[in-house]
Write a structure and sequence with these properties.
CATH superfamily of the largest domain: Aldehyde Dehydrogenase, Chain A, domain 1
Number of helices: 16
Bound molecules: nicotinamide-adenine-dinucleotide
Number of domains: 2
Number of strands: 23
Largest sheet: 7 strands, mixed
Structural class: alpha/beta
Strand order of the largest sheet: 15-16-17-14-13-19-20
Distance between the termini: 79 Å
Radius of gyration: 25 Å
Helix content: 25-40%
CATH class of the largest domain: Alpha Beta
Low-confidence stretches: none
Shape: globular
CATH topology of the largest domain: Aldehyde Dehydrogenase, Chain A, domain 1
Strand content: 15-25%
């Protein structure tokens, strides 16, 4: 059987020329190659940029209501096709159907937010800043902007970016992850059906070659990136060196502090859901539970009990709660961390390394793993594992727990479990992390707030979506205006002062 090829989407249509280089797209549940994805050369990227550049000359002047109409139509289409989109996610990423639908729906909320662009992009107006002189500010699009996205949310993370960028009057080039590329093309088709003009949204597939061309292309004004920290830093440094506005969201190591007064059943449910949902391949996954005082002694049996009941399997199987990892190399890397944790002296309480899924021998599965007695020198504490490995660290006091979180170089998400309002208030005030949950393990902000971490979890000034998203994709212009009046005549070389 011929393998399907996933090609770029440029200038409002599927790209027809065949590529010189390709990557394999796996079905992670079976381990089989199910498609090839084209890798863009610099000249293919240039074609996409030219198309986006041409389209930007008219799209920036299209009325707000016409832009909004396209977004409303797109919102309807995504809602209507959410099950097909979720199916693509499970096929290429491996996540279970319910999780995939959840992802599409969180993306949908950003489209809904972008439908309010007429209100969101309003400027300010001051009358009589000087006598009969008015001043006002307007927000204008940047031109061509690019988005480079990770494998773990192939629908939602691009939707953090392009609905707002396009609503603001920019044109967009998406370089999705090469590991699960189909959803990007599916969305491009829906945008075209919604009435988006050719060139306003383009997809180039590929690897570093495509990314580097986007980073250096003089007609690309801004780059949004989401992915691992080393690449985020590279994107930020290279993009800004080429004069672009850049927001680059990186990796994470999210802690969940559990105080002794917490509802332990609730805390155990939360740690398991946030640690093993999407097989731990979420930037907001909990990877370290910091148990204070005697909390660990009560929590450990509850965690162990829940892990024993977790069902791991093909994401399409209704019984599965956790699917496979993205590919074999990543699966083996995560399993290697479990080996290292044992060697470094942590106590392996649940071991998922030998898990076998019936009928899916080739799949990239790893069962849930739980460590106790993890210390901050161990690699399983220090590194972002990005898999189903949860560690429990024991500390004596609440202050030690906060200090541990604040000493970590990553600062994406964090959670506190307690029933003490004062402790919660201290936490939100003192913790040095971008997104904070109080009895909420995955505190992903809604579309109308902004999403982003601190420190090594974000390079740049702007978080994504919410008001920060609108600000990132627009630049401010301040206008000072006076309508000619004979009373104003007369040369005056003095510096203009307010009269
Ligand atoms: P990744 O950094 O490997 O890849 C992200 C993107 O960068 C992909 O499109 C990829 O093609 C491209 N890329 C990879 N290597 C490159 C290179 N050397 N030069 C230029 N471009 C390159 O990340 P991933 O493995 O796809 O995703 C997982 C990572 O993303 C995790 O670290 C996770 O924490 C992070 N993530 C962060 C957030 C957040 O909001 N902070 C959200 C989701 C995922």
């Amino acid at each position: 059987m011929a393998t399907k090829t996933i090609n770029h989407w440029i200038d409002g249509k599927a790209y027809e020329k065949s590529a010189e280089r390709h990557g394999d797209v796996f079905n992670p549940a079976t381990g089989e190659v199910q498609a090839k994805v084209a890798y863009a050369t610099p000249s293919v990227v240039d074609e996409a940029v030219e198309s986006a550049w041409k389209a930007s000359q008219t799209w920036r002047s299209i009325s707000l209501s016409k832009r909004t109409k396209v977004l409303f139509a797109f919102r309807q289409l995504v809602d209507k096709h959410q099950h097909e989109m979720a199916k693509l996610l499970t096929l290429e990423h491996g996540k279970v159907t319910g999780d995939a639908l959840g992802e599409v729906n969180r993306g949908l909320e950003v489209i809904e937010f972008a439908c309010g662009i007429a209100d969101l992009s309003k400027g300010e107006y001051s009358e009589n800043v000087s006598t009969e002189v008015d001043s006002y500010s307007i927000r204008q699009p940047l031109g061509v902007v690019a988005g480079i996205t990770p494998f773990n949310f192939p629908a939602m993370v691009p939707m953090w970016m392009y609905p707002i960028a396009i609503a603001c009057g920019n044109t967009f080039i998406l370089k999705p992850s090469e590991r699960d590329p189909s959803c990007a093309n599916f969305c491009a088709e829906l945008l075209a059906e919604a009435g988006l003009p050719p060139g306003v949204f383009n997809v180039v597939h590929g690897d570093k070659v495509a990314v580097d061309r986007l980073l250096e292309h003089p007609k690309v004004s801004a780059v949004s990136f989401v992915g691992s920290t080393p690449i985020a830093q590279y994107i930020y440094e290279t993009g800004t060196r080429h004069g672009k506005r850049v927001q680059a969201l990186g990796g994470a190591k999210n802690h969940m502090i559990v105080l002794p007064d917490a509802d332990m059943e609730l805390a155990a449910d939360a740690a398991i859901s946030a640690g093993f949902g999407s097989a731990g391949e979420r930037c907001m996954a909990i990877s370290v539970v910091v148990a204070v005082g005697n909390a660990a002694d009560r929590l450990m049996p509850l965690l162990k009990e829940r892990i024993a009941k977790l069902s791991v399997g093909d994401g399409f199987d209704k019984a599965s709660e956790m699917g496979p990892l993205i590919n074999k190399a990543h699966r083996d890397k995560v399993a290697g961390y479990v080996d290292k944790g044992v060697a470094e002296g942590a106590t392996l309480v649940s071991d998922g390394r030998q898990l076998a899924v019936a009928g899916r021998a080739g799949g990239f599965f790893l069962g849930p793993c739980l460590f106790d007695n993890v210390s901050t020198e161990m690699s399983i504490y220090k590194d972002e594992i990005f898999g189903p490995v949860l560690g429990v660290t024991r500390v004596g006091t609440y202050d030690e727990a906060i200090k541990m979180v604040n000493s970590n170089p990553y600062a994406n998400g964090v959670a506190l479990f307690t029933n003490d309002g004062g402790a919660a208030r201290k936490f939100q005030h003192e913790v040095e992390v971008g997104m904070v949950g109080i009895n909420v393990p995955i505190p992903v902000p809604m579309a109308y707030y902004s999403f982003g971490g601190w420190k090594a979890s974000l390079f740049g000034d702007h978080h994504v979506h919410g008001r920060d998203g609108v600000h990132f994709y627009t630049r401010m212009k301040a206008v000072t205006s006076r309508w000619p009046d004979p009373r104003h005549r007369g040369v005056d070389l003095g510096f203009p002062t307010n009269k």
